[in-house]
Design a protein that fits this description.
Elements (H helix, E strand, L loop, with lengths): L1 E3 L19 E9 L4 H12 L4 E7 L4 E7 L5 H10 L3 E2 L2 E8 L4 H9 L4 E7 L2 E6 L6 H10 L3 E2 L1 H10 L3 H41 L14 H16 L1 H12 L5 H24 L10 H25 L1 H7 L5 E6 L2 E6 L8 E4 L8 E7 L1 E4 L1 H4 L5 E3 L4 E2 L4 E2 L4 E7 L5 H14 L5 H29 L5 H15 L2 H21 L2 E3 L2 H8 L3 E5 H5 L5 E7 L17 H13 L5 H12 L7 E7 L3 E6 L2 E6 L1 H6 L5 H12 L3 E7 L2 E9 L6 H10 L3 E5 L4 H11 L3 E3 L7 H10 L4 E5 L5 H6 L2 E5 L4 H6 L2 E3 L5 H36 L3 H4 L5 H20 L8
Parallel strand pairs: 20-27, 20-29, 27-28, 29-30, 30-31
Antiparallel strand pairs: 1-7, 2-4, 2-5, 3-4, 6-8, 6-9, 7-8, 10-11, 10-12, 12-18, 13-16, 13-18, 14-15, 14-17, 19-31, 21-26, 22-23, 23-24, 24-25, 25-26
Amino acid sequence: MTIHNGPGVRRPSSVILLSTEMASEQIVLPIKGMTCASCVAHVEHGLQDTPGVETATVNLATERATVKFDAQTATVRDMVWHVQDAGYDVLTDHVDLKIENADAAGALEKTVGAIPGVLHVELADSILKIEIIPGAVTIAELRAAIEHAGGRIAESTQDEIAAQGTDREAAARQRELKREQRDLIIGLVFTIPLFLLSMGRDLIHGVLLRHDVLPWLFENAYTDWILLALAAPVYFYVGRAYHRGALAALRHRAPNMDVLISLGTSAAFWYSVFILLAEQFNFYLGAHLYFETAAVIITLIKVGKYLEARAKGATSTAIKKLMNLTPKTARVVRNGTESEIAVDAVRVGDVIVVRPGERVAVDGVVLGGASSVDESMLTGESAPVEKNIGDRVLGGTVNKTGAFTFEARKIGKETALAQIVKLVENAQTTKAPIQKVADQISAIFVPIVLGIAALTFVAWFVLDPSPAKFTNALTAAISVLIIACPCALGLATPTAIMVSTGKGAELGVLIRSSEALETTDKLNTVVLDKTGTLTQGKPTVTDVLEIQDQRLAIGAEPSQAPSSKLQFLKLVASAEKFGEHPVAQAIVEYANAQGISLAPAVEFQALAGQGIRARVDSFDVLIGNSKLMVDEKVNTRTLDKRAQKLADEGKTPMFVAIDGHVAGILAVADTLKPEARETVQALEQMSVQVYMLTGDNKRTASAIAKQLGIKNYFAQVLPENKEQKVRELQAQGKRVAMVGDGINDAPALAAADVGIALGTGTDVAMEAADITLMRGDLRGIITALQLARATLRTIHRNYFWAFAYNVAGIPIAAGLLYPWFGILLSPMIAAGAMAFSSIFVVTNSLRLNNFRAH
């Protein structure tokens, strides 16, 4: 039994999809054969014509189509068919799996064939041959389906899978590139002698013909036929993709760059064939054949496209580095036995052993041992992070010193690394608003060029008085067709987006979409939530002031001779050790750090909104705010001014009373992050207004804002009102970024023009954000802004070049310079210029790899 959903099948009828609770699904299809922005539009239209497809977005730089579809009505086979019908193809890969216990072949083929992304399944001689769309289906999904059907992948096959790696799309792309390289070599093998023979004859013809010594090689009865024999393989074989693409485009009445190339080379080739055949019947129609023109154009464009493909491959260097972080194997302990298995075979709950220098295979929690782990590849944080029992470890990070074991918690697509890769890839497939201009121009570009070429031919044929007017008209028309380059327009934005989003990931800045990147460039206001964003997010003791009172030493052993301050801290921390408030925890942690041993506390009582009461070492200890002291009739006048000063500094003062008398003050505060003030100053220097949001009273908010150098702040803002403050600023015409980390920040993050979440915050905040700073370092805001500005500058330069090239190149190709300088552009030079224009755009975008925040 064979289930075949593949490209070889023509109009599809049905395909089985795994049932799902949500009908809407998404798949990424790697596309082959696209050369320009017009191709992008044609593929998008083809996919959108597929029944059940909701949206289709195609990216020329990544050569991928992201399709959202209704799984109940749309099938992947339908999508592949519509892509092929538009004149393009979907990249596929083949997986051969040796199956054990494959008794029910029909059930096995049916179950595996039901996975979206599987195009063809056939079981023969215990080998399951599967054709898949690389990236759309993983080996883990295939394994799960096979096991569900009662089969099992043989161990030997699993080892082969591990050796092959996980980026099957990259491998398939590499094979495609090698095929392109082979075609290019064939083109060069035939074109170089053709060019030398043809041009050599032209160059020496005028010199030697007068002396009747023209070499036999350049002038004999067979020379023209040799030229045809050399040109034919290049035109028919090397240029076949352009001719096929042109026919498909014309069939759909949607001309693209293939039409320009095919029409230009066909005019040169078949004109030459016609001249050559006419001469055989003694009809002499022209002195020059253009076989070399057709061949050189195709070969030069192949050279350009090959170099462009190599350069485009470099634009995804960062994402490739991320994908290669996952090790191919993991050392797993099962049933007391340690064995090395493919990382795809790791299951949730497995115990994994990690030795010094090895990479962590998947996400999990440390069970035993301790070490320091380098997480810089995910967070951008250069310093290794200490890991102990109970700490989280992330797949792809590097174990530095010790050995440890951990329990696998997240595997495959669920790991942090996989999520980062997915987020970056999604950002690269989205379209920035600035790209709409190129899309609109590309829709009419090729028809306009065809019109200009036709007018050029007519103008030369009518106005040129020379005997060579037909040749000149043909040359100029071909040059116009060849020099026009819609590909540079199509690559201007996506290549820059690819490089910048990948670079951002390297620097710990995850950008969710290209639209967010473009909007970030236009920001003029940044709103910073105070707690957890500007501050560390947890209170710490900042000040301890005790009144010298010898009674605090009562009960201490003379040999200990404690200082008044240490005894004061001992009483306070001992009283607070049963407290659940973060402030109580901060006091206990502070005392522990001082090496103070806590005493037993009895009669503990939490006084809601005021403080606590307890008895420690026979002392009655009361800790709380001024209202509590007033209620308990404790006189605090001697410390009121100091308490007010602490409050003015943005700290929270707490009075301590011992046996009814004020004994001192402790101040706690959520301390500012060390980079907070530096970040605020950098934003101001970038002409970005900074606002602080806080629930603190105005006096405290003012004190904190002053410490940070922030001129604008909103005080006493309730969590539910943060979104309102963002909208108020937007109503004033400001482009606002909101930076936060908590659940209650999510509405404000979503409402802002750009939401920026700290990676140390909650998943809810990160889900609502457009940009995530993996390290939680505020300087990532500066990195994001500077990267966005550098990216948009690059895009603008790309567009300037693409427009300037076409605006200047097409008139020159049409013969604009001929009346003054006698220059008529050769189609071969036009082909070289066209190839260079795309390479220039891609290499200009690659400069973003050198971006450094400053």
